[in-house]
Amino acid sequence: MATLLHIDSSVHPHEASVSRDVAASFRKAWEAEHPDGKVIYRDLGTDPVPHLEGPAAVAGFVAPAEHTPEQAEAFKLRDELTSEFEQADAVLIGAPMYNYTIPSTLKAWLDHVIVMGRTTASPTRTAAGKPATVVASRGGGYGPGTPRESFEFVLTYLDKVLGESGFGLDAEYIVPELTLAEGNPAMADLVDMAKASRAQAHEAAELRGKALAARFAN
Prior knowledge:
- Its EC number is 1.6.5.-, 1.7.1.17.
- Pfam families: Flavodoxin_2.
- InterPro entries: Flavodoxin_fold, Flavoprotein-like_sf, FMN-dep_NADH:Q_OxRdtase_AzoR1, NADH:quinone_OxRdtase_FMN_depd.
- Quinone reductase that provides resistance to thiol-specific stress caused by electrophilic quinones.
- This protein is of the alpha/beta class.
- The chain is 39% helix and 12% strand.
- The protein is built from seven helices and five strands.
- The chain has a five-stranded parallel beta sheet, with helices on both faces.
- Helix 1 (18-33) packs parallel to helix 7.
- The termini are close together.
């Protein structure tokens, strides 16, 4: 039975969040093709994990057998989150752009599961090769050649953390753009482009969900 780890990080509820909405298309397709699969769901928008603190950070550099009682207690959450990440066959992450980068709640989750010598910085990285799908929504346009290309710190950051220099995941990015167009009069001429981008994102998410579910159903 395959396991999907689904992470949402938008501060907005489903009806107001494009990242949640598009990620839901992936999950719906995954569950339809793989109804017996397990889904581990963490909603960092409504139930955030705490930011990484000193004892838990230090414990990540110490072998578990050598943890002090304080380190062992502090490392429990890191171990729980990391174990969820490791046991998943596929990972789905909703990563909306806030102030040019990922939500702080998603960064906090990453800080917990980036464990040196375990999930990263190790020849035997425990999550390497897993397929990851990231829904990286953003209110404007930040693609190559756009005026704000240099302001894009979502894909540039996540590619380093999730990719070969970090976890070693096989990551695919789905990027619905211009999500603020319908509610911003100054972006009125971009509404059609925004709708097309969102529709393409839903289609890509559904296809990706079906394909990965089919892979793990065999």
